[in-house]
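Hi R.,

As promised on Friday, here is the backbone we talked about, encoded as structure tokens. Could you run it through your design pipeline when you get a chance and send me back a sequence?
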């Protein structure tokens, strides 16, 4: 490593410039961790809400089930979770709030769920789901009611970022006979030595929980009391985990290591290879247009952006940064990761700031990524 100090300066600079309230980050190569650091309101061991970074972990759990023959990628999901068969395609929402739907022409599969091509959506980014939630009244968070929203398209027809991975988590529960929190602990977190990861904030984690911030008018940040329900009806595999930078880096290192970390194998190499390839065919990602500005800004994608089995796959190299074919995604409170299978580099960077895809936070993350590659 030529200049680890430059990586640390990227974090400190982002806080001093008022880009983020605090940041924690880490990076690794195939040889091990090359950087860990933090600045501002976050410490290296801060417990953060990783939100949609949960999705890749749920995907790994689902693929363990596939390896065990509990279900296949193209098994109808309703064979495992019958409730999903109730979902129909949205036809209209009348002015009086009446919702009209029709049956789907084909069943939803695990492949549809893991690639966000199931036809489901999120109220945060889809106008129809937002209107549906308004018509039905507030949908109870972390509940089957929240997962009951209609389909926006036929399964397999188009990409729509969605609650699909929450349903994949329900498939893991049904096939394993275990609640998702226990399944992940026994089959991923304990084997990978990720003690600070879980849906519930344990006593050892509680003092280190970082506050989620919003920008204050006139500059600076305001800490909020944001916290997910600690006794949820459903453990949401799409976005409800808490973790630390160090823990999550162990997960990304496992993926970079073809399913094995420190001699412990949790996925087969061929499974990781399958997860890392385009799994949505000719379908491509569509821009995310925010319906709830306090939760997310608009997000566009590089042309040709594809989805693997819970990972976004970069179609082209980023100058001075990740290679084409790199895997990545993020979490609502502006946490991000990438896994570069070509150059064998992975990084995890997080602040705790809403709304998602904050321009200054994203620029700070990109600065971190470039500084990691520059230091190699």
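Update: got your reply. Pasting your designed sequence below so it's all in one thread:
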């Amino acid at each position: 490593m030529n200049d680890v100090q430059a990586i640390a300066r990227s974090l400190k600079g982002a806080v001093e410039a008022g880009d983020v309230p605090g940041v924690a980050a880490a990076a690794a190569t195939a040889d091990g961790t090359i950087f860990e650091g933090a600045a501002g309101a976050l410490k290296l061991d801060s417990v953060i809400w990783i939100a949609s970074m949960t999705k890749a972990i749920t995907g790994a759990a689902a693929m363990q089930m596939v390896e065990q023959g509990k279900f296949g990628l193209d098994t109808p999901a309703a064979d495992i979770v019958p409730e999903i068969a109730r979902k129909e395609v949205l036809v209209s929402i009348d002015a009086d709030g009446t919702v009209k739907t029709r049956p789907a022409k084909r069943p939803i599969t695990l492949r549809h769920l893991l690639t966000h091509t199931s036809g489901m959506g999120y109220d945060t980014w889809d106008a129809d789901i937002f209107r549906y939630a308004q018509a039905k009244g507030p949908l109870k968070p972390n509940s089957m009611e929240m997962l009951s929203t209609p389909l926006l398209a036929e399964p397999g027809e188009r990409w729509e970022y969605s609650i699909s991975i929450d349903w994949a988590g329900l498939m893991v529960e049904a096939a394993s006979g275990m609640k998702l929190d226990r399944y992940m602990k026994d089959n991923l977190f304990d084997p990978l030595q990720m003690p600070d990861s879980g849906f519930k904030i344990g006593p050892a984690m509680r003092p280190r929980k970082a506050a989620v911030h919003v920008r204050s008018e006139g500059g600076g940040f305001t800490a909020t009391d944001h916290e997910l329900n600690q006794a949820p009806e459903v453990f949401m595999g799409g976005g409800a985990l808490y973790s630390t930078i160090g823990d999550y880096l162990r997960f990304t290192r496992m993926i970079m290591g073809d399913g094995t970390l420190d001699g412990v194998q949790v996925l087969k190499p061929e499974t990781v290879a399958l997860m890392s390839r385009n799994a949505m065919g000719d379908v491509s990602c569509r821009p995310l247009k925010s319906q709830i500005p306090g939760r997310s800004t608009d997000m566009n994608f590089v042309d040709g952006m594809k989805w693997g089995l819970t990972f976004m796959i970069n179609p082209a190299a980023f100058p001075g940064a990740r290679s084409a074919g790199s895997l990545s995604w993020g979490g609502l409170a502006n946490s991000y990761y990438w896994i570069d299978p070509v150059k064998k580099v992975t990084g995890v960077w997080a602040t705790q700031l809403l709304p998602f895809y904050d321009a200054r936070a994203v620029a700070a993350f990109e600065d971190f990524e470039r500084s990691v590659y520059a230091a190699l």
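One thing I noticed while checking it: The radius of gyration is 20 Å.

Thanks again,
M.
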